[in-house]
Structure formats: structure tokens, C-alpha cells
Amino acid sequence: MATNLQKINKSTFGNLALRGYDPVAYFVEGRSVEGSKPFTHHYADATWRFTSAANRDLFAQDPEKYAPQFGGYCAWGISQAKFFDGDPQVWKIVDGKLYVNYNPEIEKTWEQDIPGFIEKADTNWPTLEK
Question: Range of 37's domain?
Fold first, then answer.
């Protein structure tokens, strides 16, 4: 499992995970959508926002299913043993898991060998310290 609760990428203001985007929306709507203040859930020392109570409740039932891999940091960056901010609008679901990357250019690099970069990132993730 590529999640470590101590390493969630959070915004400076508001302690927001995924910059306030709804992690469930990627799976149920197939797009990135900003969450809203009325629908929040606290998990892994971060505040997560959602577009609806239904999405919030889905996340609360199984946060590991919906939370982005590598704490929401750039998946390619973690494969390089570096922490780069993950952009919630630059994303992909691979094998039922959500990955974000730093920007569209980095995403193009990542897409050249997604399985290889995920394997490297999975190896690096437990050893990295933020």
C-alpha cells in the first residue's frame, strides 16, 4: 500500500489535502472537482473536501480506496525520490488507484512508463522523509 499517514500533501492554509479537490469525484464523475466547505472529513491529520455528503460518506467508509497515492504528491517525483507538489487537475486512475503529477509536462514523462514509475515510487515511498 502506497499510503503513509504522516506524509499527506497539505496546503499551507486550511490544512487541505488535494488542494481541496474531492478525491471521490475522480472515481464517480471521472473528473477533478473542487470540494466545498460544508462537506469535509478529517483523515490522516488533514482536511478533505467533497462536493456532496454522499462523496464524503464514501470516503469516510474507505479512505484508502479514494485518497491519492503517495499522499497526493507528484507520482513521478516520488519515483525520483523527491517530493513535488501534486496538481489535482493533472491526474490518472491506474488499477483503481488515484495518482496526481506536478504538471502536464511531468505527466507526459510519467506516461512513458507508468508501471515502471509506480514500481519505483512504491519502493521509494516508505523510505522518504518529509
Answer: 18-127
